[in-house]
């Protein structure tokens, strides 16, 4: 989903294991006839794990509603495009859950409705959320690259009590260096002696570039994860929609495993950054 929820179904272990079983099982069934029985069992296990995640998502509506309510209309988001995409993504995520619940209840014979329509609707909402996430990541990468390409801010020269100081207009300007020089009168020596650099007074300011590169890497990983899930979402739509129904089992498992591992990696990185933050 477009939003990361710390709920029971949000744990990546079940998802990663399920898709991994589907990947290995699909390969064994199609490529290794002698191991087809093992592959069939792995595919059955993958199906049960997927069903487990569907049941666990029955309890995610409240958490998703709290997240959507907290974000609201994105008043704190300065970028208008990101704000609009995020609002639409939250709306798609919020509607996804009840649609999936109805589809699950129909399959379980709790509700007497056509489950196929509700599964199609929930998958469409999931795909829409992923598509919006892809658009957001592409936009963020573009903006961050433009930010990195901006030239360093011009330096302003200050003379104060014998100190000549070159300082950038902004303290976080990428690649800028703050230098302090001792100013002596022309009569005290030659031209080379007019400026004497103080040892240890150069302070490189590169925080913005480092943060921008880290943000670009994070957005690229999110983009790849969303694209992998989007490919599977289209596959699960009714036949006739793009490549719907054309993926073999192992390819679905491969894309799902890739998406899950990328999400796990990002979660680990986010945890490390949170621990490093004072």
TrEMBL record:
Cellular component terms (Gene Ontology): peroxisomal membrane
Source species, domain of life: Eukaryota
Cellular localisation: Peroxisome membrane
Transmembrane region(s): 118-142
Alphabetized InterPro entries for the sequence: PEX11, PEX11C_met
Keyword Transmembrane (UniProt): yes
Biological-process GO terms, alphabetical: peroxisome fission
Keywords: Membrane, Peroxisome, Transmembrane, Transmembrane helix
Protein name: PEX11G
Organism, scientific name: Cervus elaphus hippelaphus
